[in-house]
Amino acid sequence: MLTFALTVVRHGETQYNRDKLLQGQGIDTPLSDTGHLQAAAAGRYLRDLHFTNVFASNLQRAVQTAEIILRNNLHSSATEMVLDPLLRERGFGVAEGRPKEDLKNMANAAGQACRDYTPPGGETLEQVTTRFKKFLKSLYQRMLDDHCSSDPCSASSPGPSEPKSPIIAGLANDGVHGVPVHALIVSHGAFIRISVRHLVEDLQCSVPAGLKMSQVISRCPNTGICRFIITLSREKSSPRAIHIQCIFINRKDHLNEKL
To answer: Whose CB among 24, 50, 129, 251 lies 3.0–4.6 Å from 92's, allowing a Cys bridge?
Structure first.
């Protein structure tokens, strides 16, 4: 078995975010000045953590955010960053580049909730979930290949690979005590929300006591941070997650500092 921490961060603000315009996949905008400050604040918040693996969407707002986080990190500045299109934002089709209010109006006209509505040419929730599942499969294999090359990581392996009750103290290192393998992912708001929902509803990820489902699938703020602890089992067909625990969702403590 292999137990690793997974920290997921949304990219910093762009001008499109500020103007409440949809970006999706087709509009590849850079961070705004505020977005740069948010990413730097996230980097300072996470500065003492050691990220053994880093993955980011290949859209520039995510790449820039990941670069800034790593630049502010004391232990991970040299960690290779893997750009993966599977981590891109949900595609919003004809709604991309238009005000978010237009998407709400289109959803209302179709008699659907905005977050569940698929505009013409956009990705359905199921398609985004499938994309995330494909990323998870490659992530699991990558983590085992990178960190179990000298150890078979068999299901009977004792010690730190076994799930432990994480220490939660409202700090940046919550849940990672005694977990030396730690992956950072930088992605996008809608993609993160759909991914978290899949982890909790479909993969039975445990969540902190008292956390409501409405909070689990709430909107992730720019540079909002989520964390999970995942234990993998190496099996003949492909790696499998045998335990997933959510440590926190959409944390934004770093944004309380003056930007």
So the answer is: 24
Q: How confident is the model over 119-148, as pLDDT tens digits?
A: 999 999 999 999 999 999 999 999 999 998
Residue 162 in tokens? 């076994």
The phi and psi torsions of 4 (rounded to 5 degrees) equal -140, 155
Which H, E and C letters describe 35-73, residue by residue? HHHHHHHHHHHCCCCCCCEEEECCCHHHHHHHHHHHHCC
Q: What is the DSSP string of 155-188?
A: TT--GGGS--PPP-SSSTTTT-TT---EEEEEE-
State pTM to two decimals.
Answer: 0.93
Whether the CB-CB separation of 254 and 72 falls below 8 Å is answered with no
Residue closest to 186 by CA, chosen among 79, 74, 87: 87
- Assigned token pair, 249: 């969702």
Longest dimension (CA), the chain: 57
Tell me the catalytic residues.
11, 89
Tokens for 191?
A: 């993609």
In the three-class reduction of DSSP (H, G, I as helix; E, B as strand; rest coil), residue 1 is classed as coil
What are the beta bridge partners of residue 32?
none
**CA angle, residues 49, 163, 73, in degrees to nearest 5:** 5
Q: Which residues pair with 233 in a beta bridge?
A: 240
